[in-house]
What does this fold into?
Amino acid sequence: MTALNSATALVSGASSGIGEATAHALAREGADVALLARREEQLESIAVDLRTDYGVEATSVPANVRESVEVEAAVEATVDRLGGLDVVVANAGVGRGSDVATMSDEEYEAMQETNVDGTFYLTRAALPHLTDSGGNLVVVGSFAGKFPRSFNPVYAATKWWARGFAHSVAAQVGDEGVGVSVINPSEVRTEFMSEEGQSFEERFEPGEVTEPAEVADAIAYAAGKEGSSVHEMDLFRRDKYSDSGL
It folds into this structure.
């Protein structure tokens, strides 16, 4: 994966889980990394770890992906500090509630504004730089973005949107040399759904579902492609299609 050596990358949702693991995976391959999330203290701590462990440049660019102005400022700060932009990982996402009939406006808006608007704002701000570098955009989708999900139709819809958006962006910018990939994990042992009570990290034992580092390795593989691009990659738990997995 020499393509990532000395590349510059921006990862959203980087303060924990898949985003944090992705930052480590990219830095391990020699990429300089900018970390985007709201929790500045966590970002600063991760940036120190990346610099210490891998000898790369690492910086925090705190922002709320729901705010377009903040996202644009984070992208520009990344370019200014790291000298360009070769890889963008649109990873920030949340899940709230479940049943449509009982879902609050706040739960609905949190998913729409983070999973949909945040992906759009980051992509819009980053594309001119990725066009300049011939870089890669990696969008973190979901199993829920490929199959109907009774558990939370709104969350699923946001991931269907993100997947369709990413593939259509790929069609639009492929002629300009930009690669666009979608990575679809099923359940991952992270703090996802923690605000609803029990996080996936608490719900599942190690080995039961996908680990953040596994998703991060897939993202790094897609991010390191040159010339061609990974169209889509699925990482599902091995029993996902069984009666118990569904």
